[in-house]
Amino acid sequence: MPTILVVAIYLTAGIGGAVLIGWYVVVAARLTQAVMLDLRKRIFLHTQRLSLEFHESYTSGRIISRQTSDLDTIRELLDGGLNELVSGVLYGVFTLVALFLIDWQSGLILAVMGLPLFLLMRWFYGRSQVIYRESRVISAQVIVKFVETMTGIRAVKAFRKEPRNDDEFGELAGQYRDVNMRSIRLFGTFEPALMAVASVSVALVLLWGGGRVIGGALEIGVLAAAVLYVRNFFAPLQEVAFFLNSYQSATAALEKVSGVLEEEPTVPDPTDPVDLWTAKGHVRFDEVTFGYSDDRVILPHFSLDIPAGQTIALVGTTGAGKSTLAKLVSRFYDPTRGSVTLDDVDLRRLHPKDLRRAIVMVTQEAYLFSGTVADNIALGKPDATMDEIRAAARAVGADGFIEKLPDGYDTDVNKRGGRVSAGQRQLISFARAFLADPAVLILDEATASLDIPSERLIQDALQTLLADRTAIIIAHRLSTVAIADRVLVMEHGRIIEDDTPAALIAGTGTFAQLHASWRESLV
Ligand SMILES: Nc1ncnc2c1ncn2[C@@H]1O[C@H](COP(=O)(O)OP(=O)(O)OP(=O)(O)O)[C@@H](O)[C@H]1O
């Protein structure tokens, strides 16, 4: 009868254990996936919200490594590490208690051996922290190098940079291998040391217990059980060490991820925004001082008044601060001192929605997102109808080439055959801006990379695009300047000339000289 009872208990425990494990696996997986989903979304939303200043200094490769390898490391801990820790600790505690109950002296020996065990664990924990931090940094550098090379593949090929890149990547990948080897070597030292502590503990229990068995103070069966318990105590510690290993690796990754999540936008949304539903487009710089860093001022005490509806052309030597001025009008950055206003409202107080609707910047790169041509134009007004999209394309003269594309407006811009030229890309981005219909439009060197026929097409498109709105054009080509009402010549963050194109050409200043040499180059 007792045998049947024992067997029944054993069976019940076995089946109960299996059911619990099954349940645990599902619940743990659900929890892990929920945490990962949350983290993944938070990193994306947060990095997208961060200001341009962050993105101009934090390379895209580093952001990618936060989203990929760092998150994977955290997932590995949640996936496997936690149950190892829980089962390891429970197993260890139960074994120790059981050992004390059957023979307290053996239990005491094991408790004393806890000191070298603790020291060993602490050493391992400290070392692995250093190694995994290093590993996260190098792993990010490997991804950065890869992303940078692939993003700049045209420049890489043009300058035959492949061999140098191979060397640099090989060097980084080698460093990554080395740091991984160090973590494996650490484990390789830790495991035998753990086994040595276990063996010494068993030996001590055997020695002390053996003496007592010979003296008749202890039964041989109890000694055998004590030795088994001591061995059992150490067995799950390896699992705990595995946990510590993934824990350290995940902590290093989490440090990196939270570093990004703790970044605050340097251009914060206003707490008490002013509504400006229909902006007129009056832009003013009032005693603005700005620098990207504290030690270098780019725009010193800069003041400028652009009445609504005026078209301004910004001209000047490279590095004069033209793009910086445009970034301040778009509120990609805030001034260090002074203010930039739209219709007399400080941009810092404008509701972000109103700001984005009122001020649009078209950059030289004219980025097209994956999707159709129509999708890309509709970016300017997400709820636009197909008729509005077509009308916008027609207005800037983009409809001709779009209709010739394999699927017209439904052509996927990233698919073969859907690829468009630089000028066509520019026209699509003009159509996008036209549809957005902002009160203020900024064009940053929009025509710099075009050939003459495309440029002419674009000049026509520009005329339509700029009508009835405030426009700031940064142009190196003087042909673009001709359509402006007013030309500003910038140098070292200051305006040195400010007049109509005709008046400046007639004068003897910098612009007149620039214009004269441009005319000569045309002959
Ligand atoms: N993100 C940045 N971080 C630090 N310095 C910057 C940054 N962007 C520009 N600068 C510096 O600010 C100065 C003005 O740059 P800006 O791009 O405004 O000149 P620009 O007149 O538009 O020149 P270009 O005609 O060559 O585009 C330059 O000296 C440049 O080095």
TrEMBL record:
<dbReference type="Pfam" id="PF00664">
    <property type="entry name" value="ABC_membrane"/>
</dbReference>
<dbReference type="GO" id="GO:0005524">
    <property type="term" value="F:ATP binding"/>
</dbReference>
<feature type="transmembrane region" description="Helical">
    <location>
        <begin position="108"/>
        <end position="125"/>
    </location>
</feature>
<keyword id="KW-0812">Transmembrane</keyword>
<feature type="transmembrane region" description="Helical">
    <location>
        <begin position="186"/>
        <end position="207"/>
    </location>
</feature>
<keyword id="KW-0547">Nucleotide-binding</keyword>
<keyword id="KW-0067">ATP-binding</keyword>
<keyword id="KW-1133">Transmembrane helix</keyword>
<feature type="transmembrane region" description="Helical">
    <location>
        <begin position="6"/>
        <end position="32"/>
    </location>
</feature>
<dbReference type="InterPro" id="IPR039421">
    <property type="entry name" value="Type_1_exporter"/>
</dbReference>
<dbReference type="InterPro" id="IPR003593">
    <property type="entry name" value="AAA+_ATPase"/>
</dbReference>
<dbReference type="InterPro" id="IPR036640">
    <property type="entry name" value="ABC1_TM_sf"/>
</dbReference>
<dbReference type="InterPro" id="IPR011527">
    <property type="entry name" value="ABC1_TM_dom"/>
</dbReference>
<feature type="domain" description="ABC transporter">
    <location>
        <begin position="283"/>
        <end position="517"/>
    </location>
</feature>
<dbReference type="InterPro" id="IPR003439">
    <property type="entry name" value="ABC_transporter-like_ATP-bd"/>
</dbReference>
<dbReference type="Pfam" id="PF00005">
    <property type="entry name" value="ABC_tran"/>
</dbReference>
<feature type="transmembrane region" description="Helical">
    <location>
        <begin position="213"/>
        <end position="230"/>
    </location>
</feature>
<dbReference type="GO" id="GO:0005886">
    <property type="term" value="C:plasma membrane"/>
</dbReference>
<keyword id="KW-1003">Cell membrane</keyword>
<dbReference type="InterPro" id="IPR027417">
    <property type="entry name" value="P-loop_NTPase"/>
</dbReference>
<keyword id="KW-0472">Membrane</keyword>
<dbReference type="GO" id="GO:0015421">
    <property type="term" value="F:ABC-type oligopeptide transporter activity"/>
</dbReference>
<dbReference type="InterPro" id="IPR017871">
    <property type="entry name" value="ABC_transporter-like_CS"/>
</dbReference>
<keyword id="KW-0813">Transport</keyword>
<dbReference type="GO" id="GO:0016887">
    <property type="term" value="F:ATP hydrolysis activity"/>
</dbReference>
<protein>
    <recommendedName>
        <fullName>ABC transporter</fullName>
    </recommendedName>
</protein>
<feature type="transmembrane region" description="Helical">
    <location>
        <begin position="85"/>
        <end position="102"/>
    </location>
</feature>
<feature type="domain" description="ABC transmembrane type-1">
    <location>
        <begin position="1"/>
        <end position="249"/>
    </location>
</feature>
